[in-house]
Amino acid sequence: MFKRISLALAFVTLFSWTLTGVSSAYSNSNWMGSIPANTPLSSLSIPGTHDSGALYEPINGTAKTQDLTIAQQLNVGVRFLDVRTRHYGDAFTIHHGAIYQNQNFDDVLNAVIGFLNNNPSETIIMSVKEEHTPANNTRTYEETFKSYVAKNPDKWLLTDHVPTLGESRGKIVLLRRFDMSQSPYGINATAWQENTTFNIQNAASMKIQDYFKVSDKNKKWSDIQNMYNEAKAQNSSWLYINYTSGYDPGWFGIPNIRSIKDDINPKVNTFFTTNTKGRFGISVMDFIDESTSAKIIATNF
User: Fold this and answer.
1) Could you tell me the pLDDT band of residue 16, with boundaries at 50, 70 and 90?
2) Burial state string for 200-219 with b = 16 or more CB within 10 A and e = fewer than 16
3) Is the pTM of this model over 0.70?
């Protein structure tokens, strides 16, 4: 009797997969493997992190944006990394502004490539931006970036359009926030604007909310919600990148990152407790945690 029930359940599971192309069995570390290969990345809800490598600060609240390492972020489901690199000594160090984050670009890539090797169904969208001032270099930022790609060329997808999962599984999809003489070379986001909501349209169409100098927390939350609602209802081919992060300028201009996180992150968590299904774009968060990441991922199924 139990054998017949087990066989019946197995048949139902297989039949469901055949009809939908989506398996309900996934974990945060391999959730993209349960989504059909022909799905564009723009059609997904994706957990992401702002200043993904910023785990260190000399003064509380001024530079640290994450509690989880890059490897831990990937394991809880993060698939968008915001990597800030200083060009120093013909190599890239990881910075948040002037603050060195005690790791280098090789450390980030080792974590990402190691994760992809262990989880080949996944992809990582990596935004790369030059940070702070260059020093002690004998070559250009472009040349140094290419030297990193040359170490593992099969791990990079440098297409200028928004790819499908099938195109990008097992690879790093470059979202480029620095100039290149070669084109195409990654999704071109060099027209990034500061502290506002804006569109970029080239081979890839993107809408980005990055109001980061937050003098009005209600406006920040309204901007975030508006992006979520638009992503769900409109422009299915557009990549929506929604920064929930920011800082309070504070007294004498000293930034307070945690005051914004403490206000906004619970609202994001509540939003995805209520909005449990749909396409909401990329949520780029400070201090992401496993619970919120899991809720964002669940909206894809």
Assistant:
1) very low
2) beeebebbbbbbbebeebee
3) yes
